[in-house]
Structures are given as structure tokens and as C-alpha cells.
Design a protein that fits this description.
- By secondary structure, the protein is mostly helical.
- The chain has helices at residues 3-29, 31-35, 41-47, 57-61, 66-86, 101-108, 135-145, 151-155, 192-198, 226-229, and strands spanning 116-117, 131-132, 210-211, 214-215.
- Helix content is 42%, strand content 3%.
- Strand 3 and strand 4 (214-215) form a beta hairpin.
- The chain is globular and about 80 Å long.
């Protein structure tokens, strides 16, 4: 084969790869493609009814930039596909997909400037007690702890879980074990998602762990507006 034919073949292969990628990549970016794997189907079903139903899977699960695309999309996507086709996929109740805080803050960065959330913006029954929540302080504390924590430490179920105890939307699991309304998730005993769903604010607000040299209080007034707590009948 002479040089001209080799060059033509190489160029044809490169052009074909670009053409294939131009078709395949948009297809694999669609949530329905993700849902074609039966392990992901429960996550897809919860996503379509969530507050993030207009945000695609890759928007949250693939970090921005070339490195994020190569690792999160190309590498992890290929690996997961091979496991799905030829191996033993992880049970859907034990999925541990990570969403980096930098991805969340790409849309929600303004929350770092807010410390008190107006009651009109809160879902019931949290509206009855108000909320004082410094997201910046929490992000700083997570950084100091150095345990790879971030937005999903509190908001991990916002897309792929169901509301509990009368909440109209999925919010951080507060008071799961503290109030008078027992609740247990649908996930099997011992599964990762069950453990995550039962974790609430008191895993850090236990009166023992410290922030800036002071124990993190378990008192209601730490997070809720004092003038509203007395009138609320949420807890016994």
C-alpha cells in the first residue's frame, strides 16, 4: 500500500470516528439511554418526578472540562457498560454515584450568600419553624474535616429519593429519628441507600463534634427561628 492510500485510509478512519462520535455522544447523553440499563431504571423513575427533571444525568454526574468528561463520561461510562453486558452490575439499592459540589454550585452558587431562608420559600412543615442555614459555613467545615463531603452530604436524596412525612419535596433528612412520626425507607435493610436515607442532621449536630472550637449544638435554635419554634407542634 503506497503512502497516498495509507493517508487516505487514515483520514477516512479519523473522519469516521468523528462522525460516529458526533452521533453516539449526544445519544448517550440522553437520560433514556442511561435508563436502558436496568440498574439505573429506579434512578430514572425518581428523576422524572423530581425537582431536577429538566436537568440531564450528565449535567450532574459528569464534571465540566476535559478531565471530567474523560473520567466521568468516557471511562466510567465504558466501564459501567462492560459490567452491565458481561459482569455483575451493582444492585440498584447500593449505587454510590458521586456528584461533586462544583457541579451543584454551577447552578446554586448564590446559596453561599444566604444564611436565613425566607419562610415563604420553605415547604411545609419546615415553613412553620423557619430556617437559619449558612451553606458557606457548612462547606468550609466540610473542607476542614477533609472527608470528601459537600453538597450531597445533606442533599444526596434530592433527585433520587421520595418525600417523607408530609414534605412536598425531598429535603435534607432532618429529625428522622427525633419526631413522633416513625418513618422507614423502602430500601432493603443493610443497603447503602437505606443507610443514607436514615442519616439526618444529628450525625453532625450531636453536641460532640466541633466547629471552630465549639461543639455543634443539638438545640432547635441552632437551625430554626426561636420565635417560631414555640408555636410549632412538630415535635414532642
Amino acid at each position: 500500500m503506497n503512502w497516498n492510500r495509507k493517508a487516505t485510509l487514515i483520514l477516512a478512519l479519523i473522519a469516521g470516528a468523528f462522525a460516529f462520535g458526533g452521533i453516539a455522544i449526544p445519544l448517550t447523553n440522553h437520560p433514556k439511554f442511561c435508563a436502558s440499563c436496568h440498574t439505573i431504571t429506579p434512578s430514572y423513575d425518581s428523576w422524572v418526578t423530581s425537582s431536577h427533571k429538566d436537568v440531564t444525568c450528565v449535567a450532574c454526574h459528569v464534571r465540566p472540562g476535559l478531565e471530567g468528561w474523560l473520567h466521568d463520561k468516557a471511562w466510567n461510562g465504558t466501564k459501567d457498560s462492560m459490567i452491565h453486558l458481561f459482569g455483575t452490575p451493582t444492585d440498584s439499592h447500593n449505587l454510590q454515584a458521586k456528584v461533586g459540589s462544583e457541579v451543584c454550585l454551577g447552578c446554586h452558587r448564590n446559596i453561599l450568600r444566604i444564611s436565613e431562608i425566607a419562610t415563604r420559600d420553605l415547604p411545609a412543615p419546615v415553613k412553620d419553624v423557619g430556617l437559619v442555614m449558612s451553606h458557606r459555613a457548612h462547606m468550609e467545615a466540610f473542607g476542614v474535616r477533609g472527608q470528601d463531603e459537600g453538597c450531597t452530604t445533606c442533599h444526596s436524596g434530592v433527585v433520587h429519593e421520595q418525600p417523607i412525612k408530609g414534605y412536598p419535596i425531598v429535603i435534607p433528612r432532618g429529625h428522622v429519628a427525633a419526631d413522633s412520626q416513625p418513618w422507614y425507607p423502602d430500601h432493603p435493610e443493610g443497603s447503602y441507600l437505606r443507610t443514607r436515607a436514615l442519616s439526618d442532621c444529628f450525625r453532625c449536630h450531636d453536641g460532640k463534634q466541633e466547629y471552630k472550637g465549639k461543639p455543634i449544638s443539638r438545640k432547635c435554635e441552632t437551625c430554626h427561628l426561636p420565635e417560631k419554634i414555640g408555636a410549632a407542634l412538630l415535635f414532642n
